[in-house]
Design goal:
Layout lengths: L3 E5 L2 H11 L3 E5 L5 E2 L7 E2 L5 E2 L2 E2 L4 H13 L2 E4 L5 H14 L5 E4 L7 H9 L6 H28 L10 H17 L4 E10 L6 E8 L2 E2 L5 H13 L2 E13 L7 H12 L3 H13 L1 E2 L5 E2 L14 H15 L33 H4 L5 H17 L4 E12 L2 E12 L28 E13 L8 H10 L8 H10 L3 E4 L2 E4 L1 H13 L6 H15 L5 H22 L8 E6 L6 E7 L2 E6 L8 E2 L1 E3 L5 E3 L3 E6 L6 E7 L2 E6 L8 E2 L1 E6 L8 E6 L5 E5 L8 E2 L3 E2 L11 E5 L5 E4 L6 E3 H5 L1
Parallel strand pairs: 1-2, 1-7, 7-8
Antiparallel strand pairs: 3-6, 4-5, 9-10, 9-17, 10-11, 10-16, 12-15, 12-17, 13-14, 15-16, 18-19, 20-21, 21-22, 22-23, 24-25, 26-27, 27-28, 28-29, 30-31, 31-32, 32-33, 34-35, 35-36, 36-37
C-alpha cells in the first residue's frame, strides 16, 4: 500500500506530525517558501495583467525533486503549510510542481499541532483556497512594485543600496513624525499641591489640589503658587464629601499576535522578533519526554480573540478545579474582535490544559518557559470572574480650594489572581482611606508644592510601535516583527535606551518619499490597502483590479519623482563658515555616513568636519576629540569618531594611516585573572555595550557602563550605571542589586 504524503514547511513541524500519524504517512518539509519573485529583476509583467515570474529559491532544487519523487509514489498528497496567506502560497507552489506527478492532492488546515487536530484535519481535506493565494500574491506584487521601482530613484538621488517598502516606509514616517512632535514641543510650567491630612481615625492620608473656585486648578507661575500655598497653609480643612463605590475590573482577552508582542516586551523584555521565534517553536512542537513531541500553543499569527468551545470548556473546568467556583463565571467570557480582524484563526492559547507551565518546564529553555507561562496565564485569566474593588473618594474643602483623595482595597481578586497587564511591578499600590465621617474637620500635618513642566510625547519602544501600527491598520500580525527588524537593518531608525529615533538618513529618505509619493506614505491609504487585501481573500475584490487601480496613480508618481525629487547627494548647502585650513567657503554635503561639512575648494583642500545645528539653525563645527591614545602603527594621536556601529578611535593621520580600535575605559576587566581593560563596543544594530578588550580570550561583557566602585553591601569589585525613566542616574551592583543615586554617591 502506497503511503500518503504530508507536506509542511517546517522540519520541526514535520517531525511532530510524523509521530502522530505513524508509518503509513511520509512527511516532507519545504523549509519555508520554495518559489519567489527573482532577486535581480522586477519579476512582474505589468502589461500582462501583472503576471508574476516566480523562480525556484536558491537551495530548494533538491527539496522540490524529493517532493516530486515522493508525490509520484503516494496515493494521496496532503498540503499542510501554515493556515495563513503565506502558507497558502507555499501550498499552491507545491501543487504546481507536482500536478503532473501525483494523483489526488488536498489542502488540510489545522490551528494547533496536536494529534486530535491533525487527525481531524485529515478527515476533512479541502480544496486549495484560490482567493487566499491571490491575496498573498497581490501583496507580494504590490511590495515588489513599490520596492523595486522607488529604490533605484533613491540610489540616484541619495546613495546606492537604499530601499523603500510599502509598509516599512510608513513605519519610518510614524517614527519621524513623533520625533518632529518632540522637537516642536513647547514645555509649559504648572504647579501641583499635596497635603498630608489626619482625621479622627488612622491612617494618615494625602490629598491633592483639584479645583479652585469651582474650576480646574491651573497654576502656571511661582507667584500664584506661593499665594495658594499660603492659603492652604493657613486654611481649615473640612471633609465635605465621601463617595464609596464598588468597582469591577473585567478580564482581558486571550492573546492576539500584536498583544503577545507588546506584553512580552513589557514583562519579559523580548523583542517582537524574539517573541515570534519562540512562539513558532512552541507551536511546532516540543519534546516532552514520555509524552512525546507536542505543540504547546495554537497558531501564533492571528488577530482574532475567538476560542473554540472545546477549549472554553477545558479552561473553565481547570479554573473551577484550581481556583473554585467563585473564580468561574456562570457563562464563558466572549470578546469582541476589532473591525479589521480576519477571524480566520483562534486566539493564541495552550493546546491542552493538562500541559501546565510547571509540567512542561523541565523540557523548555528558560525563554520558552517564560513565554509559554505568559500565554497560559493570559488565557486562564481571560475566562475568570472580574476583580472587585471598594473605591473611596474624599472631597476636602479648604477655603476657595477643593482637594481630593482616592483609595481602594481589593475585595475579590478575580482574574488578577493569575494575570495583570503591563510591566511587572507596575500595578498601583493599594491606598486605603480611613473610616471618617462626612463633615469632620481634618488636621494638616504637611503641605508640599511642586513645580512641574509638561513633557513631550514619548518616543516609540518596540511594544508601543507595534501598538501604533496595529491601531492604524498598518501591516498585519505576521508582518510586525519583520517591519521592526527591517527599518533598523536599513539604518533608517536606531534604538537608544530602548526607544526608536530616526537617523539622519531615515529623516532624509522619509522627507523625499513623503514629498513625492504622498499616497504610499499616507497611513490611511496603507490601512485601506490592507482592508482591500482582506477583501481579495474574502472573494469580494479581484486582485488584478486592485493592482490596476493602484499602479495607474503610482506610475505617474514614479515619473514625476524621476524629475522632481531632490538630488541630495549632489547638493552643497552653504554654511556661511570659512575653512580653517584655506579660508574657502564651507558647505554641507552628503556622504555614505550622512551629512558633513566639507571645503568648497576640494580636491585642493580636503578639510572635512562633523557639525551641529541648534534650534535656531546656527551651525557650528564639532571639534575633534583627540585622546591620549597613541596609534600603534604610526605613533600619531587618536581621536574619537562616530561610525556606522557607534563610537571608535581613529588615527588623526587619516587617510595616510587608517588604523582604528575600540574606545578603552580606564577600568581594568573585572573578570578574575584577566589583565585586559574594559572597552566600549557596539552591536550591529548600534546598541552600545561594554566588554573586555582581550576578547575572545576573555568573554566578560555588560550592557551597562561599569564603574570601578566596590559595592558597600556585598563587596563586589564594581558597579554599573543605570538611568531611570525620570532621568536619574544610579549605580547598581550587578551581583546583589544594591543601588545608589549618583548624587548620593558623590556626596
Amino acid at each position: 500500500m502506497a503511503k500518503s504524503l504530508v507536506i509542511v514547511e517546517s522540519p520541526t513541524k514535520a517531525k511532530t506530525i510524523g509521530r502522530y500519524l505513524g508509518k503509513n504517512y511520509q512527511l516532507i518539509a519545504t523549509v519555508g517558501h520554495i518559489k519567489d519573485l527573482p532577486k535581480k529583476s522586477l519579476g512582474v509583467e505589468v502589461e500582462d495583467d501583472f503576471s508574476a515570474k516566480y523562480e525556484t529559491i536558491r537551495g530548494k532544487g533538491k527539496i522540490i525533486r524529493d517532493i516530486k519523487k515522493a508525490a509520484g509514489e503516494a496515493d494521496h498528497v496532503f498540503l499542510a503549510p501554515d493556515p495563513d496567506r503565506e502558507g497558502e502560497a507555499i501550498a499552491w507552489h507545491i501543487a504546481e510542481e507536482i500536478k503532473k506527478k501525483s494523483g489526488k492532492v488536498s489542502r488540510i488546515i489545522f490551528h494547533e499541532i496536536t494529534k486530535k487536530a491533525i487527525v481531524e484535519a485529515l478527515k476533512h481535506p479541502q480544496e486549495l483556497n484560490m482567493p487566499k493565494y491571490e491575496s498573498q500574491q497581490a501583496r507580494r506584487i504590490l511590495d515588489r512594485l513599490v520596492g523595486y521601482q522607488i529604490s533605484p530613484i533613491l540610489w540616484k538621488k541619495v546613495r546606492r543600496g537604499l530601499s523603500a517598502g510599502r509598509v516599512q516606509s510608513v513605519a519610518v514616517k510614524i517614527i519621524c513624525e513623533r520625533e518632529k512632535e518632540i522637537r516642536q514641543f513647547i514645555s509649559e510650567e504648572y504647579w501641583s499641591f499635596q497635603a498630608e491630612l489626619e482625621g479622627s481615625k488612622k491612617p494618615v492620608f494625602t490629598a491633592k489640589l483639584a479645583k479652585t473656585e469651582g474650576g480646574k486648578s491651573d497654576v502656571s507661575n511661582k507667584e500664584e503658587a506661593d499665594r495658594i500655598l499660603d492659603e492652604l497653609k493657613n486654611g481649615a480643612y473640612k471633609l465635605a464629601g465621601i463617595d464609596r463605590k464598588e468597582r469591577r475590573r473585567y478580564a482581558t482577552p486571550p492573546f492576539i499576535t500584536s498583544k503577545l508582542q507588546q506584553e512580552a516586551a513589557y514583562k519579559l523584555k523580548y523583542s517582537p522578533k524574539k517573541t515570534m521565534v519562540l512562539a513558532q517553536q512552541l507551536y511546532e512542537g516540543i519534546e516532552l519526554g514520555d509524552k512525546g513531541e507536542q505543540g504547546l500553543i495554537t497558531y501564533m499569527r492571528t488577530d482574532s480573540t475567538r476560542v473554540s468551545e472545546d477549549a472554553l470548556a477545558a479552561v473553565r473546568a481547570f479554573i473551577e478545579g484550581k481556583y473554585g467556583k467563585d473564580y468561574t463565571p456562570e457563562k464563558p467570557n466572549y470578546f469582541k474582535n476589532r473591525k479589521s480582524s480576519q477571524d480566520a484563526h483562534e486566539a493564541i492559547r495552550p493546546t491542552s490544559m493538562e500541559l501546565s507551565p510547571e509540567v512542561v518546564k523541565p523540557f523548555l529553555s528558560s525563554d520558552q518557559y517564560k513565554l509559554y507561562r505568559l500565554v497560559w496565564n493570559r488565557f486562564v485569566a481571560s475566562q475568570m470572574t472580574p476583580a472587585v474593588y471598594d473605591v473611596t473618594t474624599f472631597e476636602i474643602e479648604c477655603g476657595r480650594h477643593l482637594l481630593t483623595s482616592s483609595g481602594s482595597i481589593t475585595k475579590f481578586k478575580g482574574y488578577t489572581a493569575v494575570y495583570t497587564e503591563g510591566a511587572e511591578g507596575t500595578d498601583k499600590k493599594e491606598d486605603q482611606l480611613p473610616e471618617l465621617e462626612q463633615g469632620e474637620m481634618l488636621k494638616l500635618l504637611n503641605l508640599e508644592s511642586r513645580q512641574n513642566f509638561t513633557q513631550p510625547p514619548s518616543r516609540f519602544s518596540e511594544a508601543t510601535l507595534v501598538k501604533e501600527l496595529e491601531e492604524n491598520g498598518v501591516g498585519r500580525p505576521s508582518t510586525y516583527a519583520t517591519i521592526l527588524s527591517t527599518i533598523q537593518d536599513k539604518e533608517y531608525v536606531a534604538r537608544k535606551d530602548g526607544y526608536f529615533t530616526p537617523t539622519e538618513l531615515g529623516e532624509v529618505v522619509n522627507q523625499l518619499l513623503d514629498e513625492n509619493f504622498k499616497e504610499i506614505m499616507n497611513v490611511e491609504f496603507t490601512a485601506d490597502m490592507e482592508e482591500k487585501l482582506d477583501d481579495v481573500e474574502d472573494g469580494k475584490v479581484d486582485w488584478k483590479d486592485l493592482l490596476k487601480n493602484f499602479y495607474g496613480r503610482f506610475q505617474e508618481d514614479l515619473k514625476a519623482a524621476e524629475t522632481n525629487m531632490r538630488e541630495v547627494k549632489r547638493e552643497e548647502i552653504p554654511t556661511g563658515l570659512k575653512c580653517p585650513q584655506c579660508d574657502a567657503d564651507l558647505n554641507i554635503k552628503w556622504g555614505k555616513r550622512g551629512s558633513f561639512i566639507a571645503c568648497s575648494a576640494y580636491p585642493e583642500c580636503s578639510f572635512t568636519s562633523e557639525y551641529r545645528k541648534d534650534e535656531e539653525g546656527i551651525i557650528t563645527l564639532v571639534e575633534k576629540e583627540v585622546t591620549n591614545e597613541v596609534c600603534e602603527k604610526c605613533g600619531s594621536k587618536m581621536e574619537i569618531k562616530e561610525g556606522r556601529f557607534g563610537r571608535f578611535l581613529a588615527c588623526t593621520n587619516y587617510p595616510e594611516c587608517k588604523s582604528t580600535k575600540p574606545i578603552k575605559l580606564s577600568m581594568k576587566c573585572p573578570e578574575p585573572g584577566c589583565d585586559g581593560h574594559v572597552v566600549e563596543k557596539t552591536t550591529r544594530r548600534g546598541k552600545v555595550f561594554y566588554g573586555c578588550g582581550s576578547y575572545p580570550k576573555c568573554k566578560w561583557a555588560s550592557w551597562d557602563k561599569p564603574v570601578e566602585t566596590p559595592c558597600t553591601e556585598c563587596g563586589n569589585t564594581y558597579m554599573v550605571e543605570k538611568r531611570s525613566r525620570d532621568g536619574h542616574v544610579v549605580t547598581k551592583c550587578p551581583a546583589c542589586g544594591h543601588a545608589v543615586e549618583k548624587d548620593e554617591e558623590q556626596s
